[in-house]
Amino acid sequence: MDRLRAMQTFVRIVDGGSLSAAARALGVSLPAVVRTLAALEEHLGTRLLNRTTRRIGLTDAGGEYYQRSRQLLGELEEAELAVSSAKSRPAGTLAVTAPVLFGRFNVVPILAEYRRRFPQVGVRLLLLDRNVNLLEEGIDVAVRIGHLADSSLVAARLTQVRRVACASPAYLRRRGTPKHPRELAQHDCLSLTALSTGGDAWRFRENGRAFDVKLRPSFVSNSGDAVIAMAEGGQGIGIALSYQIERQLARRRLVPVLEPFAPEPVPVSAVYPHGRLTAAKVREFIALAAAHLK
After folding, report:
1. Average per-residue pLDDT in the chain?
2. E-assigned strands of the chain?
3. pTM of the predicted model as reported, rounded to 2 decimal places
């Protein structure tokens, strides 16, 4: 048994969430992955994964072996890159994923500058308003908005964005401007599901402490574009992230409300699999993104 190959296969299984995902990522057949895992478990004398027809889970021994394997494979990748041309100059194809609007407004200009600096590097951009499995999708780096769940990925903070309650000037002339978040009960509220907490609640902050205001929104959508369009049309007070309404605020098609009660800003991070930062193409992208978004 090739122990290094078996270790790589095991890590791919865990990162991908299934044996079939590992097979696709490694470019081998599913039976080959099954045989490699069985041989590894036999060699170690313990079960690493609890497998059912629908999911896999790490055993206690598997969890420890996974963490140590990731560390060893990351160190091996760094050692190889340290003595290769990949350390000094970007090469190959850079695969990036980001949320749709943030990607259009911010990541595309970064990638345009990246291509001007490194024309020899190809770029693949995937814009989605959901998180994807980086290893399974072959993604080098993801730009993500929000507090990150614990995972095997490494994160680099790039910037932060604000949650903004806003409305059109026409709506505020007609209905008045709320002075406190609790006055939202007397207003038409336009709720973006991704920014709501505990269902139809919006988060605010007062005297350094966060609190939620329960609402009965007149419009609810999973689309930021839809909420923003309704707010521009004078249909109520909406909530959005600052980058989503930058143009509308600048042109006074929307105006912010309840600014003294704005919640904590939301972080924007670049996340990548362990060891990938040593690849020059990823390192240069993160450095450029941090400078652009500062």
Report:
1. 87
2. 49-51, 56-58, 93-98, 122-127, 141-145, 153-161, 163-167, 189-192, 201-206, 209-214, 219-221, 237-241, 255-257, 266-273
3. 0.64
